[in-house]
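Feature request, filed as a ticket because there's no other form

It would be nice if the structure record came with a short human-readable summary line next to the tokens. Right now we just get the raw output. Example of a typical job, pasted below so the devs can see what we mean:
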Amino acid sequence: MTIDKNIPIKNIYYMLTYAFKELKHNNYEHIVGENFDNIYDLFAEILSKGVSYLLKQGLHKEYVLKEDTLTTLRGKLNLQGTIKERISQRPHLACEYDELTINSIFNQIIITTVGALISKSDVKKDKRNNLKKLMLFFDGVDSIDPSAIRWNILRYDRNTRTYQMIHSLCYFILQNILLSTEQGETKLPQFSDEHINLLFQRFVLEYYKKHHPEYKAAAKQIKWNFHDTNASSSSILPIMQSDITLSLCERTLIIDTKYYNKNLQEYFGKFSIHSPNFYQIHTYVMNEDRGHTGKVDGMLLYAKTTANIQPDGNFITNDGNILMVRTLDLTQDFVNIKKDLENLINYKY
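Raw output as currently delivered:
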């Protein structure tokens, strides 16, 4: 099966296994052999397996502060509240106490995501029913507004790390991600450029981390190559953050991944590389090659669309840096995707 008749669902799963390595463990292994009609059906199955495993481990609980009027003292006495009770001639004590509950942000994210999936007509009835059964164990957990989730403040320790992969998947689902359309164009409503590229970027990064640890693949912050810049001036400079940086022997390769509706811009019938993309990779390379050695190269890596014209080319600076533009066909068999990823780093220089 394919996602919107373009990217095979199986390929999406393989990409997810690289981006979220936990998918290769526990009870996820058999998923790749199943037949899925769409991306939400796949997400529902992965989430179902993940929540089932989570329930076996035990749901995360947190202490939350509660205020209540009780007949006996519990926790800390709220003096002002108790006085109000006595004035109203009620023999109660206003108490403040900590209560251990599963109604935490960790579980609220899950029940909110499952609710969104269940509402999708694309998800098969049996998978929706299975998710509903699992949610019976989340009784007392509140659903929340997805836009109010502060993903950047979530922290995972040894007691909550089983939630990390599930939350990563929830992030994709709640952002309403659709990876392609029948016309080969991206359809990602309410998604920023960062979100659009996230799965593609993480897949490529984790692929090189796994298969080429000697290249020390990382998302590296690049420093501006300026002299005598004081602290106050430096603070207003934009941050340069590469998607993937590889160390290839004496050379460095900076890869910037792009997942767009159209991989080329058109002006009066002439097609060209998106200007901001090329300026960006050129800036990264020039600032990373602080000594003008020519040993830092850059690559714009686009996810291939079905358009007849695709970006491709090599451009060499006066210092010898190679700026490359390439596409990766995510619709082909995954074995060939891996071959293409290998070829990308075996370029001649």
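Something like this underneath would help us a lot:
The first helix runs from residue 9 to 19.
The mean pLDDT is 81.
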